[in-house]
Amino acid sequence: MPKFLLNNLNMIEVIHVNKSFDNNPVLKDVSATFQPGQTNMIIGKSGSGKTVLMKCIIGLHTVDSGKILLNGQNLTEMTFQEVKILRQKVGMLFQGSALFDSATVLENVLYPLEMFSSMSKAEQIERASFCLHRVSIDPKAFGLYPSEISGGMQKRVAIARAISMNPLYLFCDEPNSGLDPQTSLIIDQLIHEITEEFKITTVINSHDMNSVMEIGDNIIFIEKGEKSWQGHRSEIFDTGNKALEDFVFASDLYKKVKLSHSLLDK
């Protein structure tokens, strides 16, 4: 039986991973850990390699060298059957929510349960309703279509669908893309709460500094294909890493936050 079905830790370890495309190195000897029950964030400039790193962890890209371990089992050495089982334990939250336009809210959440679970229809509906309730979707909206609800509600429905199979791992690609600041904060807090509540290993690909500073339990900064820094959001003011500081404090707001932090330390 695969180890990831037996071990409750669900840690992801990336060990000396290299990945190139057409002989152009994109990831260079990257090593990082992604902890369960934490919001693990991959940040970096466009083209830094952060999206490729996430796709390697998911298994959408094969690595040229190195290891990606899920509870100690190397993803690249898993059998087809093990990978199939693992993918049923992975939740995905896509940048644009990726809801089915022709399906209702409830039908969207039911989809993975119908495809992959052995539940009865009644159990599927019960589970889907629970997930929608957990993300604060009113039952009156269960029969609505994505075009009939707001962007924030669409994102919450997408989260409900992502957790419907009770995943060990949750991958989020720019979850706040296209949302206003207030809704973004709500989505951030929801992802963080669900991560802690269900002890999911959540990996978020983001360039949203508000999200980083709000929920970044474990932050991995990728610079030109290399891991340049890893740590908690509370440590980000004092890294001494110029590339990270230039990235994080690019906006006037965070420059002021950085200055205030420096003055308090004096």
UniProtKB/TrEMBL annotation:
<feature type="domain" description="ABC transporter">
    <location>
        <begin position="12"/>
        <end position="249"/>
    </location>
</feature>
<dbReference type="InterPro" id="IPR003593">
    <property type="entry name" value="AAA+_ATPase"/>
</dbReference>
<keyword id="KW-0813">Transport</keyword>
<dbReference type="InterPro" id="IPR017871">
    <property type="entry name" value="ABC_transporter-like_CS"/>
</dbReference>
<protein>
    <submittedName>
        <fullName>Phospholipid/cholesterol/gamma-HCH transport system ATP-binding protein</fullName>
    </submittedName>
</protein>
<dbReference type="InterPro" id="IPR027417">
    <property type="entry name" value="P-loop_NTPase"/>
</dbReference>
<dbReference type="GO" id="GO:0005524">
    <property type="term" value="F:ATP binding"/>
</dbReference>
<dbReference type="Pfam" id="PF00005">
    <property type="entry name" value="ABC_tran"/>
</dbReference>
<dbReference type="GO" id="GO:0016887">
    <property type="term" value="F:ATP hydrolysis activity"/>
</dbReference>
<keyword id="KW-0547">Nucleotide-binding</keyword>
<keyword id="KW-0067">ATP-binding</keyword>
<dbReference type="InterPro" id="IPR003439">
    <property type="entry name" value="ABC_transporter-like_ATP-bd"/>
</dbReference>
